[in-house]
Amino acid sequence: MDKLIELASTIVSGAFIAFLATWLTNRSRNRQEQQAEIGALRVQADAMTVAVAELQGAAAANRLLWEGPAERARSFLLAVLAFAGGAARARIAGGTDNLSGLVGLGQAAELLSWDRRATKQTVAAVREPLARAAAAAAPLMRYPDPAVAATTEQLLGACGDVENTAQLETALEAFGQAVRAATAPRLSWWARRRGVPAE
After folding, report:
1. Using H for helix, E for strand and C for coil, what is the string for the chain?
2. Helices 127-141 & 146-160, crossing angle to 10 degrees?
3. Angle at 60 between CA 55 and CA 63, to 5 degrees
4. Could you give the angle at the alpha carbon of 42 between the alpha carbons of 37 and 47, nearest 5°?
5. Residue 196 neighbours by CB under 8 Å, 6+ apart
6. What's the rounded Cα separation, in Å, for the pair 142 and 150?
7. Is the pLDDT of residue 199 over 50?
8. What angle do the packed helices 2-62 and 97-124 form, to 10 degrees?
9. Cβ–Cβ under 8 Å, residues 117 and 139
10. Is 141:41 a contact under the CB 8 Å cutoff?
11. C-alpha to C-alpha distance for 148 and 71, rounded to whole angstroms
12. How many alpha carbons fall within 13 Å on the CB side of residue 169?
């Protein structure tokens, strides 16, 4: 009988140890998977934030280079000078008033055409950061946390209207809050029950 009791206690303690080892292994594996998922989300969120910052920089450079009042005045002054120079050359060559005016208009139109092409090339430079933002948003829009997916979609929509800086800043802030909430440490059942704040 003593042998039977000893065998039963050995089996029970072995089963308890096996159960405990399995539980600890599963818990450790789940925690590692959770940490890997959080790390991947942080990397993807950083890529999205950098892409949005590049887009904002390209848009700001475009505004500074081509859209300010000083730049518009510069373009107007250059067009007037081109008109006057072309008209003067035509007049010196013996052209009539009408002919010299037409030559001047042609010179001004050529200059404004070049200026417009340069403006469009600068605006096209926004296309690359916008494509990077879209590429960074793709995995985030499929993320299981609905707040991350929704705010990513809103941020990408705001990137389409990069001139509306207030909307873009608001969307970027909401995206950051959703990512911070998704990457915050998750409390154990016991800590939640006791009401311990996350570290």
Report:
1. CHHHHHHHHHHHHHHHHHHHHHHHHHHHHHHHHHHHHHHHHHHHHHHHHHHHHHHHHHHHHHHHHHHCHHHHHHHHHHHHHHHHHHHHHHHHCCCCHHHHHHHHHHHHHHHHHHHHHHHHHHHHCCHHHHHHHHHHHHHHHCCCCHHHHHHHHHHHHHHHCCCCHHHHHHHHHHHHHHHHHHHCCCCCHHHHHHCCCCC
2. 160
3. 130
4. 125
5. 187
6. 10
7. no
8. 170
9. no
10. no
11. 40
12. 4
**Structure tokens that stand for 179 in this block:** 């990512």
Contacts of 122 by beta carbon, 8 Å cutoff, 6+ apart: 61, 62, 65, 66
Tell me the C-alpha distance between 141 and 82, whole Å: 52
What does the pLDDT read at residue 173?
92
Query: In one letter, which amino acid is 133?
Result: A
Residue written as token pair 């080892």:
21
Q: What is the pLDDT of residues 152-178, one digit of tens each?
A: 999 988 888 877 888 888 998 999 999
Rounded Cα distance, 133 and 155, in Å: 9
Average pLDDT over residues 38-50: 87
72 token code pair: 């518009």
Per-residue b/e over 42-64, b at no fewer than 16 CB within 10 Å?
eebbebbbebbebbbebbeebee
pLDDT digits (tens, 9 = 90+) for 3-43: 777 878 888 888 888 888 888 888 778 778 788 888 888 88
